[in-house]
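Input set for joint prediction.
Command: fold jointly, output tokens.
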Amino acid sequence: MTRSDEASRNPLLQIKGLETHFFTDEGTVRAVDGAEFEVYAGRTLGIVGESGCGKSVTAKSILQIVDRPGRVVDGEIIYRPRAEPERDLLKLGANSHEMRTVRGGEISMIFQEPISSFSPVHTFGNQIIEAIKLHTDLNNDEAYDLAVNWLERVGIPNPQQRLSEYPHQFSGGQRQRAMIAMALCTNPRILIADEPTTALDVTTQAQILDLLLQLRDENEMAIIFITHDLGVIAEIADDVAVMYLGQVVETAPVEEIFESPKHPYTIALLNSIPSMAAAPRDRLPSITGAIPHPQNRPPGCPFHPRCPSFIPDVCNQREPSNTMIDSDRKVRCFLHEAI
Amino acid sequence: MTAISQNQDPKPLVEIKELKKYFPIHKGFMRREVGAVRAVDDVSFYINEGETVGLVGESGCGKTTTARCIVKAIDATAGEIMYRTVDGSTVDLTQLSNAEMRPLRRDIQMIFQDPFSSLNPRMTIFEIISEPLLVNNIGTRQEREDRVHELLNQVGLRQEFMQRFPHAFSGGQRQRIGIARALAAQPRLIIADEPVSGLDVSVQAQVINLMMDLQDDFSLTYLFVSHDLNVINQISDRVVVMYVGRVVEVGTPKELFSSPKHPYTAALISALPKPDPKQKRQRTVLEGEVANPAAPPAGCYFHPRCPHAIELCKTEAPGMEEISPGRFVSCHRASELDLAGVSIPASAD
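tokens >
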């Protein structure tokens, strides 16, 4: 699959040098530490990484909904919708009218735990109709019809009846479908999905992944799909960004990540997935050590204490830069840096 | 119905026969009993000494309830759990009183899913790991300390950690502490309930490797409960697949995953995301959702979602059949269906 020339020139969303820090009593945690990636219309970017690597904070930074004591301290988030001039979202105030139009209207987000994203004391219908009315000029009846229409599209039976029910009356899979309907009813250009299937069973997960891909194609939108599961990435993503300790260490099209991973962390991550094709009772290759505590971030390349290809006096001294190794591949590692 | 049982020697360490656990549903002012959630509804399987049996299924299928019945954390509604003690006699755990169960509790230990809530935050690591020794009156203080040293070594933790509290440890380290605690009293059977589900993949691999090493070193028997087919495939000698409180299929991971006989097993395999973007999915995406165990459908519990269901499936529940030695399936159409298993990447093109 090759990107059309027009699309490759103009990413819909471009993140540059994003820094989001948490200012806690124990010190500053650099949760996102210079993350860089691009998102293209009609494609899915998978952000993969282990817990604490900053993937969720990156997503929240895009919408400027980072919880305190976190704050975006540096970077650019360039948003280029087709008809309008490009804007740096970070230059808009978090509570400005413009940002509120973008948030939920042009860039929507769905979360891992849909139950905690809904109000338990309002019917589901009230909540979705409120979202529609906030972002469109529709009146009550039109908004109701649109809500019914969206529930049908995401595969919820009896939409009229379900609209008058409360979120706790939905099952886990239905709730995630409802959440998707609510996120998409404003026709966003970008959908950010933060581990939307992690809490679901595999059979339900398969349904939701298929639904997301189908809706992406129908609406020509871009998806940023955040997960720790490389299997899910292989299924849904077109491009992949691998994150480790707040940095994007490798970006590449999905086939190339799986076929010829370049960064030692990506390689180790791919090796450590238990596979159905593997012989039972085989030992898994595992990454030594654990993810460092974010307050004890190692100097130099953050992965060097666990890295099998560690170069003494280089990796622990300096930080590698993000190096372009192909027209659509970047990697942050001294092994691939022309010195 | 052919119960799943092991006929030849060696006799199994644990044999579960027609286990049932119903949770009553109360309703109204008088708290009348109006029904029951059939969490475990006729489950039979056995665990041989020294092997790992993987118990796999989706949430709500009763796998954790089955595990909790075996350690007698809850009492079974009906059925037998035959346990072969060290001296070779066989006892039914469901019939034992708490006092009679006590000496056996040393033998059967449990590892839990959430390493954050299963360790008491106000106890030091030494206190946590030595507690099984203390309650069973094993050793003096000095001996217990030596034993904790040894255990920490075995699970790959440093001895200086002994006086620290759980909050100082990462998820993987906490799971190692949980494993050390389970090993403390030298058990024979370890029930591990989703022990790696809360861990990152890189750490998950470390813990699985550790559990396999410990099994070889101390000839442990594992019942490994998980929803993750990949993990189950990695660690198990035999696999039991459950759906809505019932066992649907039993076999070795190789048999089960390369040529599943039950449509549910096949659907689970097909739904599993494959870490290979080239292998295009040929999914049988299941319609609908897991049946409600409080009001299961008639006949085979799987029939409303089954792409191969026939009239018979709607009225009559299939019995358990042994289709080859040690291989059990509960499906009316097991012999006629040709179901796809795990396709090896090389043959995908």
